[in-house]
Amino acid sequence: MPMDKEKVIPSKYIPEVGSHIETINGKDYLITNDAMYTFYQRTKGEFSPFFLAIRDEKRLLGCKCSKCSLVRVPPFLTHCPDCNFAPTELIEVEQVGIMNTTPPITYFATSMFQDMAPYGRGRVIFRGADTAMSVNLYTTTGILVPGIIKKGTEVKLVFRDERIGEMTDVFCVPTAELSQEQINKKGLQESEIDWESPVEPECRMSQQRTRRDIGMPLRR
Amino acid sequence: MGKRVGIIGAGVTPFKGTWREKTYYELAQMAAREAVKDAQIDIHDVDAAFYGIYNDIFERAAIPEHAIHGLLGMQNKFGIRITNGGATGAYTMSAAHAYLAAGRFKTALVLGVEKATDCFDFSSMSATPEVIKSIGWSADSFFEQGIGWSASDSYAEVVLGYMDEYPGDLKPEVTAQISSQLSQQVRSNPYAQRQFDQVTPEEVMNSRLVAYPFKELEICVYTEGAAAVIFAEEETAKAISRNSGKPVVWITGVGEANEHSFAGKNQKVMSRIMSDYYGSHRAYEMAGIKDPKEAIDIVELHDAFVHQLEISMAEFGLVPLGRADALIEEGLMTPGGQYVVNPCGGLIYCGHAVGASNIMSAWSARNELIKRKLKTALVHGTGSTVAQYTTCLILEHA
Fold it and tell me: Which letter, b or e, does each residue of B275-295 get, where b requires 16 or more Cβ atoms within 10 Å of its Cβ?
C-alpha cells in the first residue's frame, strides 16, 4: 500500500472538481475530473486468525487438510477441494522458506505503488508448507536487482515494527544477508536488521544501482 | 456435437490510445455497424448479443453493457455480458458459439468494447499508472493486491518460472526480434494503434525495463476501441454468405481452461501456461486436428508480452517447450515460415482494448484466411493473474 496512511485515499491522488476542453480536428470535446470510489469496512472472515497471528503474535499460519495433509500457506480455505471438501485445521509453519520461482521486479508501477518502485514480489514456500505465499522481497544491500533472489534462494520472513493485519505487515529478505541468530529468531522485526550499511552483492547490474540510503522497506 | 457455427461478418473501429471524441457507447455502435455492413444484413436480423467488456472501472459503470443493448437496436432480445480478464473477448466468442451450437439462436452479435484510458493519475498527470492500477484490482484482494500485484508482474512470474526451467530459451535477442517483426507486420493494418511505429531489435533491446524481465517494447499497449463479429448457425450462415458473396469461416473447435491462481504443490505450475495447453488441445480435439503443426496456418495470439507469446506457441504444440526460440532461430514464424503469427501486429502493435482484443484477433484471422486462401487459424485469448485463463478457437476456411 502507499506510504501515506492517514487517509484510505491519500490526498495527493484526489483531483479538484473541474473540467477542460480538448479540440480535435476543429471540434471541442469536454473532459471532466471524476472518480469512481467506494469505501469499505472489509471483512476478513475466516482469514482473521491468519492476519491476527501476523499482527499480534508474529506467527505464520497455514491450513492442513485432514485427509491429504497438504499444508496451504496462507490458509486460504477451510475445506480441501482436492479431498471432496475435507476440513482443514490451522497450523503454524516456520518463518524461513525458499523461493518457488525467480521473482519479478517492478520498475514502472501502478499509481498506488510508484513510491515503492522498484520492488520485488515473489512466492515463498515456507518450511512446513506445500504452497507458496506472495510476499514483497527486499535486500539489505540496497535496491533489489535481478540475480540477488532467484528460484531456490532461502529467505526469512520479517515483520514490520508497526502492523495492521495486512500482507504489508511482512516481507522477506535472503537469509544469506542475515546472521544465524536473526535467521533462527521467530518474529524477526525490520528494526532488528541493519539497513544502514548495505554490503554490495556480487551480481549483474548491482554496481550502477546500489545506493546507501535506498531499498529500506521502512515505509509502505 | 451441436450445430455448426460460422463467422459471416466482422468489423472493428480504429484502435487508438485514446478516443477523446467517442464514448464507449459510440465505439460499440461503430463496430456493430461495420459488422452488419460486412455481413450485408440488418441489425434486426440478429437474434442475440454477447458483450465482452473486461473492466467496470475502465467504463466507469457497473453493468456497462445495459445502455449499449438498446443503442444497437437489440432491445427486447437476449443480451449477456462476459468478463473473464484478458481472455474476455475469446470467452465471449466461446459463449456465443455454445448458444448457437445448442440451437438457441440462429444469429448472434459478439461485441467487445473498452474505454481504458479515461483512467487518469492526477499525481503524475498521466493515464498509464492509473490504467494499470485499475487492472490491479483484478488481483486477489486478501493476499496480493496490497503488495503491488500487477498484470505485468504476474505474467513475469510465469515467464521467470519458465526461464527457471528452460534457462536457454526466451533469449533477449529473440524476444527483441519478435517484437520488431510484429512492428513490421502491423504496417498492413490500418486500424492499428501503432501502424507506423516500426522498431528495430536493437531498439527493443535498449528499451527500459518495466517489470523484469519485460522491456517496454515487449509489452502490449492499452487501447480504446471496439470489435464485432457476427456468428450464424450453418443454414443461416450459408444463406447470408450467398447474399453477401463472402465465404463463411467456420468455428470448428473451441477449448477453454482456467488454472489455479495460487502456486505450489497441487496448485498452478509456474513454469507452464497449462490453460494454454488445455485450451488449445481441447479446441484441436473438437476440430479433429491430430497434428497442429501440420494443420495450423495462422495464429492470432494474445501477445500480452513477447515472452508469453513464445511460451503460448509452445503450449499450443507448435514449437517444443524449451525451444520456443526456434520460432525465430529456425524461421518458424519469420516471413515465409511455417506459421503466420499475428499478421495484425498483435496486441503489442495493433493494441489491447481488452474486451475487444480477442474479437479483433478473430476479425483478423478470418480476413487473413480469406485473403491468403489458407485453411486453418488458431485464435487465442489469455488473462487473469499468472496467465490463469485461456480460450482458443479454431477457424476454418473451406
Answer: bbbbbbbbbbebbebeebeeb
Which one-letter amino acid corresponds to residue B244?
Answer: S
- Which residues have C-beta within 8 Å of that of residue B306, sequence separation ≥ 6? B175, B178, B179, B182, B218, B219, B348
Structural domain includes residue B20? yes
- Would you say residue B64 lies in a domain? yes
Instruction: CATH number of the domain at B14, please.
Output: 3.40.47.10
Please state, as a whole number, how many other Cβ atoms lie within 10 Å of the Cβ of residue A152.
11
Task: Report the residue of chain B nearest A45, measured CA to CA.
Answer: B142
Q: What are phi and psi of A53, to 5 degrees?
A: -65, -40
Under a CB-based contact definition with an 8 Å cutoff, are residues A1 and A168 in contact?
A: yes
Number of cross-chain residue pairs from A and B with Cβ atoms under 8 Å apart: 151
Chain A CB contacts of B213 under 8 Å are 104, 146
Interface probe for B, chosen from A1, A37, A69, A112 (most Cβ of B below 10 Å), is A112
Q: Which residue of A has its CA nearest to B150?
A: A110
In a domain, B67, yes or no: yes
Q: How many domains is chain B partitioned into structurally?
A: 1
Three cell numbers at B390? 485461456
What is the grid cell recorded at A46?
475466516
Asked if B123's CB is within 8 angstroms of A114's CB, the reply is yes
Residue-wise pLDDT tens digits, B315-360: 999 999 999 999 999 999 999 999 999 999 999 999 999 999 999 9
| Chain B residue at shortest CA distance from A106 | B211
Q: Is the pLDDT of residue A3 over 60?
A: no
Query: A170-205 burial string, b = 16+ CB within 10 Å, else e?
Result: bbbbbbebbeeebbebeebebeebebeebeebeeee
Does B263 contact A166 at a Cβ distance shorter than 8 Å?
no
Please tell me the distance in Å from B156's CA to the nearest CA on chain A. 6
Helical axes B306-315 vs B274-287, angle rounded to 10°: 50
Mean pLDDT, residues B27-35: 98
CB contact under 8 A, B263 and A101: yes
A15 contact residues in B (CB cutoff 8 A): 122
Closest chain B residue to the Cα of A114, Cα to Cα? B129
Assess: ipTM above 0.90: yes
- What chain B residue is nearest to A35 in terms of C-alpha separation? B60
Minimal Cβ distance to A167: which of B146, B164, B209: B146
Contact (CB<8Å) B265/A70: yes
Domain boundaries, chain A: 95-209
In this predicted model, what pLDDT tens digit does every residue of B257-299 receive, in sequence order?
999 999 999 999 999 999 999 999 999 999 999 999 999 999 9
- Classify residue B230: in a domain, yes or no: yes
Question: Which stretches within B62-218 are classed as H helix?
Answer: 65-71, 88-101, 128-136, 151-165, 172-185, 201-206
Q: Which domain does B55 fall in, by range? A: 5-119+222-244
On whether the CB atoms of residues B357 and B332 are closer than 8 A, the answer is no
Is the CB of B21 less than 8 angstroms away from the CB of A15?
no
